[in-house]
Design brief:
Layout lengths: L4 H26 L1 H4 L4 H7 L1 H25 L8 H21 L2 H11 L2 H12 L2 H8 L2 H6 L1 H11 L6 H12 L7 H6 L2 H15 L2 H5 L5 H14 L1
Protein name: DUF4386 family protein
Keywords: Membrane, Transmembrane, Transmembrane helix
Organism: Planomonospora parontospora subsp. parontospora
């Protein structure tokens, strides 16, 4: 399957675009807070096993989404390259920071087991509202991930790799989730991007090795630029 590093990167990028959003969609389905009390100090205590499983799934979904975004930048090398170089790192940083926020889940679960829901919520709010937490992990990083992936998909569309409906679906799914309460509606909104990113992943997997390599800067360009650099020196 893997003739060289190019084949490996193509397959890995395609698989990540399928798996990462799927893990996020599964996590929101399993999350006790999706169907129960919106206070995680309560809902996590209702089913501690599922609470821990969903935290792990979210953690890895966000880390893999960062890698998937990195793979998506490859198809933007010939067109929308500057756009990708700006949007891509912001999206990657956003998802890495989202992953870091998942460490708050076991803290909230522990507080819910040892305090009343009201007291646990009060303590948790004081912790997560510290300036270091807000500006180090939340703002503006959350928005770079949630709104950044649809924006990055616009770059893939401009590069001719994605259909127009893919950034639209991502905007409706991920962007729309910011305007509804976390719950059953989130299952739908985080479910539909699975099809959009999955379509990009399948397209990558179906690409030939030569098609993938064609996105790399050509050797002739590098050779042609070398004499000019020598003259300038």
């Amino acid at each position: 399957m893997f003739k060289d590093s190019a084949d490996f990167r193509r397959v890995a990028s395609g698989v990540l675009l399928i798996v990462a959003p799927l893990l996020q969609a599964i996590a929101v389905i399993l999350d006790p807070g999706t169907w129960g009390d919106e206070r995680e100090a309560v809902s996590f205590g209702d089913d501690p096993v599922l609470a821990q499983v969903q935290s792990v799934l979210y953690h890895w979904a966000y880390l893999l989404m960062a890698l998937a975004a990195l793979g998506l930048l490859h198809v933007m090398r010939r067109r929308a390259a500057v756009f990708g170089h700006i949007a891509g790192p912001l999206v990657i940083l956003g998802y890495i920071n989202l992953s870091g926020l998942l460490m708050a889940d076991p803290v909230e679960w522990w507080l819910g087991r040892h305090h009343s829901p009201e007291e646990a919520t009060r303590i948790m709010d004081e912790m997560v509202n510290l300036p270091g937490v807000i500006f180090g992990f939340q703002m503006p990083w959350i928005f770079f991930a949630i709104f950044g992936m649809p924006v990055l998909a616009v770059g893939a569309w401009r590069a001719g790799f994605a259909h127009w409906w893919i950034p639209l679906v991502l905007a409706v799914g991920y962007g729309g989730s910011m305007f509804v309460g976390y719950g059953p509606a989130t299952v739908v909104l985080w479910g539909i991007p699975v099809a959009a990113l999955g379509a990009l992943g399948v397209r990558m997997l179906r690409m030939s090795r030569d098609e993938w390599i064609s996105y790399y800067p050509t050797a002739s360009t590098a050779v042609a630029s070398a004499p000019a650099a020598g003259v300038g020196a």
